[in-house]
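Input chain follows. Return structure tokens only.
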Amino acid sequence: MKSFFSRLFGLEDVPQPEFVSDTETVRRIVREIDRLEPAQGRYIAAFAFVLSRVANSDMEISEEETQRMEEVIREAGGLEEAQAVLVVQIAKSQQSLLGGTENYLVTREFNKIADREQKERLLHCLFEVSAADDEISMVEENEVRKIAEELRFDHHEFSAIRSKYNEKRSLLRNRSELWR
């Protein structure tokens, strides 16, 4: 079964039943980290893409955000540094090429393949990447909120996780500066 993008760009999908629901973004990253079992590769691919989604939400992925993404992917996937760098670079390029159309699809795929603990870890990592340049902008925070909703977190669960990053949130920083 060919995806919309495969048909549009003339790319061939390799018919593999367990990959039918994967997006082209996830499949491309999985191919690059082929030493992992396919399920783990899909998980890391989706994780990396969602991280890049938040990092790019303000239309710029800083060097600090990139470095933090590489660290997170290295830890989450048990990857070597070179593999983590490659995964992050592919996720970033796919985000810039297909981000708007793939964002929801990849997040939905992550929601299917991850357990609750993994989803919670992703939310923490999203805030960590957003805060890598020492501030979580409103645009980044709003994108994390959208992702949390797509992962079926309710407002209280999201707020509990977000509260751990209050010192980096631009909204709260701006308010505290007004009261000084």
